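TICKET: design request
STATUS: open
ATTACHED STRUCTURE:
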């Protein structure tokens, strides 16, 4: 993986976590999460794309994303994102699609 990694236990990473982080007992650094370093996230210019769909996106805390919002984010990355952002989307998409088969949401936890 060029943009994402697994099995982080600390550091300045965005955590893509299955389900709704706000339900149940919140925990970070889950074994089945996908992680993207903060520097990569900002270099890919994902923040302005995500906030078009999720104006309430919290880059320093949890944000819940549903399936329809994910479709809109993908469309924007594919039409407005940089080539690197589009490549990162190819890494994220299989994880998100698998997650959304069993969950209604996933969460992006800011570093």
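STATUS: resolved
RESOLUTION: sequence designed for all positions
ATTACHED SEQUENCE:
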């Amino acid at each position: 993986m060029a943009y994402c990694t697994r099995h982080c236990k600390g550091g300045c990473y965005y955590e893509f976590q299955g389900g709704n982080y706000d339900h149940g007992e919140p925990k970070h650094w889950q074994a089945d999460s996908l992680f993207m370093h903060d520097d990569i996230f900002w270099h890919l210019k994902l923040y302005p794309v995500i906030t078009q769909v999720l104006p309430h996106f919290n880059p320093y805390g949890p944000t819940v994303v549903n399936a329809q919002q994910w479709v809109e984010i993908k469309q924007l990355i594919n039409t407005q994102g940089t080539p690197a952002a589009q490549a990162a989307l190819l890494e994220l998409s299989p994880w998100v699609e698998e997650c959304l088969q069993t969950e209604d949401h996933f969460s992006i936890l800011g570093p």
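CLOSING REMARK: The mean pLDDT is 93. The first strand starts at residue 13 and ends at 18.
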